[in-house]
């Protein structure tokens, strides 16, 4: 983004305008995603370097868009449990994965919906197994 900002100012402005429009369209949620600072494959890095890449990626996003990112793209969609936990610890709510990387999925929590919860149940919804990369990648809006 820094190169675009310096060398293609019109394009940079269009990216910022598009992000702003997406926040209006999606009730404050942005269509833009942060990315780790360099094109580093995080599961191959040590914990300190992973944290640095995540934090610098968040800072870069904030410097361009003026808000904290909700999502972060990982190079080559390379993810492992430690990386995903570090993303969550740093406020990142989602990332993009390939269908074969999902063992199971569940719908997002629906605000105020508690009729299906049983006493003592701490889960938000039931997990759905996704054998053979069968995760549904479509989204109907």
Explain what the structure shows.
By secondary structure, the protein is mostly helical. The protein contains 4 helices and 4 strands; from the N terminus they run H-H-E-H-E-H-E-E. The strands form 2 sheets. It has a two-stranded parallel ribbon. The protein has a two-stranded antiparallel ribbon with strand order 3-4. Helix 3 (47-65) links the parallel strand 1 and strand 2 (72-73). The protein is globular. The two termini are 29 Å apart. The relative contact order is 0.11.
Any chance you could write out the topology, listing elements then pairs?
Elements: H1 2-7, H2 9-25, E1 34-35, H3 47-65, E2 72-73, H4 81-89, E3 104-105, E4 128-129
Parallel strand pairs: 1-2
Antiparallel strand pairs: 3-4
Helix pairs in contact: 3-4
Defining key terms:
two-stranded parallel sheet; mainly alpha; 141 residues; two-stranded antiparallel ribbon
Briefly characterize the structure.
The protein has 141 residues and is mostly helical. The chain has four helices and four strands; from the N terminus they run ααβαβαββ.
The sequence of SSEs as H and E is HHEHEHEE
Calculate Rg over CA atoms. 17 Å
Total number of helices: 4
Major sheet details: 2 strands, parallel
Q: Spans with pLDDT under 50 lasting ≥5 residues? A: none
If strands are numbered along the chain, what order do they take across the biggest sheet?
A: 1-2
Mean pLDDT: 88
Provide the structure class.
Answer: mainly alpha
N/C terminus separation: 29 Å
Strand percentage, roughly?
Answer: 5-15%
């Amino acid at each position: 983004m820094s190169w675009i900002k310096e060398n293609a100012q019109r394009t940079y402005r269009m990216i910022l305008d598009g992000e702003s429009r997406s926040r209006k369209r999606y009730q404050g949620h942005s269509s833009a995603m942060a990315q780790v600072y360099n094109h580093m494959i995080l599961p191959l890095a040590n914990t300190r370097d992973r944290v640095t890449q995540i934090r610098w990626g968040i800072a870069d996003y904030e410097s361009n868009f003026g808000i904290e990112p909700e999502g972060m793209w990982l190079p080559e969609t390379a993810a492992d449990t430690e990386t995903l936990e570090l993303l969550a610890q740093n406020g990142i709510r989602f990332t993009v994965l390939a269908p074969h990387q999902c063992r199971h999925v569940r719908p997002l929590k629906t605000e105020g919906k508690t009729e299906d919860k049983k006493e003592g149940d701490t889960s938000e919804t039931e997990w759905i197994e996704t054998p053979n990369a069968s995760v549904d990648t479509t989204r109907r809006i």
